[in-house]
Write a structure and sequence with these properties.
The protein has helices at residues 7-19, 24-56, 61-82, 85-90, 92-105, 131-152, 157-161, 164-176, 181-197, 202-222, 224-234, 245-257, 282-315, 319-343, 361-378, 382-389, 394-400, 412-422, 424-437, 449-457, 479-495; strands spanning 113-115, 118-124, 127-129. The chain is an all-alpha fold. The chain has one domain (21-400).
Length: 496
C-alpha cells in the first residue's frame, strides 16, 4: 500500500501541472496585470482622497482620472494582445520617430506644460500626456526589432550598437532638457537590457555601463535638485524639513504600519504629512495601511511577474519577441525595485513611479501596453501556438475572441544558424554549396583509387587521372555527392 503523499508535495505537483499547461504563461501575465491595476486603483483612492478634497472638493477627483486612464490602458492592453508581430516590427521605427518629434515639441514654451520644474507634459482637453513615457516603449520595441535583425545577419558589435545607441543618446538629451531624472534612468535600463540580452560582448557591455554610471554621477553632481537629492540620501538629517523631508516621512509611515497595518483608508501620512503620497511614495501608504504583509504581497506580485516574463522569453523562438519580453520585464522590475528602494531608504529619490500602482495616467496606460505585448508573446510560445491552432483556446480566449497566433518563420540567417546548432553534419554540404556560389575556393578530396585504375584500364592518359582538386570544378555541386558518384562509376567499370 502506497504511503500518503505529503501536503506540500501534492501542492507542488499541482503547481507544476498547472505551469506545464500551454497557456500558463499567458494566464500568469494577465492575472498579475489585473491584480496590480486593481490594487493601484484602491490605493490611489485611499492615498489621494484628502488632497483631492482640498483641491477639487471631492474625494474621488484623482481617483476618477486614474480610473479613466486604467480603462484606456485595458483597451490598449487588448490591442497589444491582438496586434500581429510583423505589424509591430514594421511600425516600430515610425513610432520612434513620432516620439522624438513629440519630445522636441514639449520643450517649446506654449506647447509643453511645466509642472514642478519639469516641462514634460501636453495638456489636451484637461488631460495630461507625457511623451517621455511613449519614448520608453518606442525604444524598447524598435531596439528589439533592430537587434533581432542584426543578430540574424550576424552583424558586428559596431553594427549592433549603431544606430541604437546614438538614437538613445538623442532621446536622453531631450529628456534631460526637461529635466526628468526618473525617465532617464528608465531609458538606461531599457538600452542596457537590450544590449545584454542581444549578446553584446561583456567587455563592450561593461564599458557602456561604466560610461553610463560616470555620466549619471556627473549629472547628479552638477544639477541643483539632483545633487540635493543625493546629499539628502547620504545625510538625511542635514535638512530634515527641506529636501530630506519626504524620505523621512516615508520611513515614519512604514514604521507606523507595523506588521498588520493600520487598516485600509486609515493612513495618517496622507493628511499632508507625506508629499506625493498617491504617486512616487504610494508604497509607503501601502506599508502603513496594509502593513508588512501588504508590502510583501506587492513585492511578491512583481517577483511573480519577473518569473513569468523571463519564462516567456526563454520559451520564445522568435528572436524579436525574446528580446522584447526580456527587456520589458527588466524595465518594469527595475523601475519597481528603484521605487521601493528609495521609499525604504536604500536608494536616492529619483521620482520613478511604482508600475500600475502609483497615480499617473500616461504611465499606467503605457505599462499596460507593455503587459499586453508580453501577454502577446506568451501566446506565441510553440506549445501555446500548437494548442491554440488545435482549438484549445479556453474560456478566456473565446470570451475575448483572440485571433490565432502566427507560426514563427525564421529568417534565412537564423534558419542556417538553427540548422547548424541542431545537426552540424547536415550543415556542411549547405556550407560548401554556399561557398561555391560565392566564388570561395573549396578544398576537394582526391579521386578514389577505383576511378584511377578504371581510367588506366581504358587507355586514358595519365593527365586525365590527376587528382580531382586539379580537375575543372563542377558548378554548384557538393563535393560529397560528386565523390560518391565517381566511386560508383569506378565500381561499374571494374565489374565490366
Amino acid at each position: 500500500m502506497n504511503a500518503p503523499q505529503p501536503a506540500d508535495g501534492a501542492a507542488r505537483n499541482r503547481v507544476g501541472l498547472w505551469l506545464a499547461r500551454p497557456l500558463a504563461s499567458f494566464h500568469l501575465v494577465v492575472t498579475i496585470a489585473v491584480l496590480l491595476t486593481v490594487l493601484g486603483l484602491v490605493m490611489v483612492l485611499s492615498s489621494s482622497s484628502v488632497e483631492a478634497v482640498a483641491t477639487n472638493g471631492s474625494a474621488y477627483g484623482l481617483f476618477t482620472s486614474q480610473a479613466i486612464f486604467a480603462a484606456l490602458g485595458l483597451v490598449i492592453f487588448y490591442l497589444a494582445l491582438i496586434v500581429p508581430v510583423r505589424v509591430l516590427r514594421r511600425f516600430s521605427f515610425p513610432a520612434f520617430a513620432v516620439t522624438v518629434v513629440l519630445l522636441v515639441l514639449v520643450l517649446i514654451p506654449g506647447i509643453g506644460t511645466e509642472s514642478q520644474g519639469t516641462r514634460g507634459w501636453f495638456v489636451v482637453a484637461g488631460v495630461s500626456l507625457q511623451p517621455s513615457e511613449l519614448a520608453k516603449i518606442a525604444i524598447a520595441v524598435w531596439g528589439a526589432h533592430l537587434l533581432a535583425s542584426r543578430r540574424a545577419e550576424r552583424s558586428s558589435t559596431r553594427e549592433m550598437m549603431i544606430p541604437l545607441v546614438p538614437a538613445t543618446l538623442v532621446v536622453t538629451l531631450l529628456i534631460i532638457l526637461q529635466p526628468d531624472l526618473g525617465t532617464t534612468v528608465s531609458l538606461a535600463i531599457i538600452v542596457l537590457a537590450l544590449l545584454w540580452f542581444a549578446g553584446l560582448r561583456l567587455r563592450v557591455f561593461l564599458t557602456i555601463v561604466g560610461t553610463a554610471a560616470g555620466l549619471a554621477v556627473l549629472l547628479a553632481l552638477t544639477a541643483g535638485y539632483r545633487s540635493a537629492r543625493v546629499r539628502a540620501f547620504f545625510n538625511p538629517g542635514a535638512d530634515p524639513q527641506g529636501i530630506g523631508y519626504q524620505a523621512r516621512q516615508a520611513k515614519f509611515s512604514l514604521a507606523d504600519g507595523g506588521f498588520w497595518g493600520r487598516g485600509l483608508g486609515q493612513s495618517r501620512a496622507k493628511w499632508s504629512y507625506l508629499p506625493n503620497a498617491h504617486n512616487d511614495f504610494i508604497f509607503a501608504i501601502i506599508g502603513e495601511e496594509l502593513g508588512f504583509l501588504g508590502g510583501l504581497a506587492v513585492i511578491g506580485l512583481f517577483g511573480l511577474f519577473a518569473y513569468a516574463g523571463l519564462r516567456i522569453s526563454l520559451r520564445s523562438v522568435d528572436p524579436f519577441l525574446r528580446l522584447l519580453t526580456a527587456t520589458a520585464t527588466t524595465w518594469i522590475i527595475g523601475q519597481a525595485f528603484i521605487n521601493i528602494g528609495y521609499v525604504v531608504g536604500l536608494l536616492p529619490v529619483t521620482g520613478l513611479q511604482l508600475p500600475l500602482v502609483s497615480a499617473g495616467g500616461t504611465s499606467t496606460a503605457t505599462t499596460l501596453l507593455m503587459f499586453g505585448l508580453i501577454a502577446n508573446a506568451a501566446r506565441h510560445e510553440p506549445e501555446a501556438v500548437a494548442a491554440l491552432h488545435a482549438g484549445q483556446d479556453g474560456r478566456f480566449g473565446r470570451l475575448l475572441r483572440l485571433p490565432k497566433p502566427e507560426q514563427y518563420t525564421p529568417a534565412r540567417g537564423e534558419a542556417v544558424r538553427l540548422d547548424r546548432r541542431a545537426d552540424p553534419a547536415r550543415a556542411e554540404p549547405r556550407r560548401a554549396g554556399a561557398e561555391r556560389g560565392s566564388g570561395t575556393a573549396v578544398r576537394k578530396r582526391p579521386a578514389p583509387p577505383e576511378r584511377a585504375s578504371h581510367e588506366r584500364a581504358r587507355g586514358r592518359t595519365t593527365q586525365s587521372a590527376t587528382p580531382r582538386d586539379q580537375a575543372p570544378r563542377r558548378a554548384r555541386r557538393p563535393a560529397r555527392t560528386t565523390d560518391s558518384r565517381d566511386g560508383r562509376t569506378g565500381e561499374r567499370g571494374n565489374r565490366r
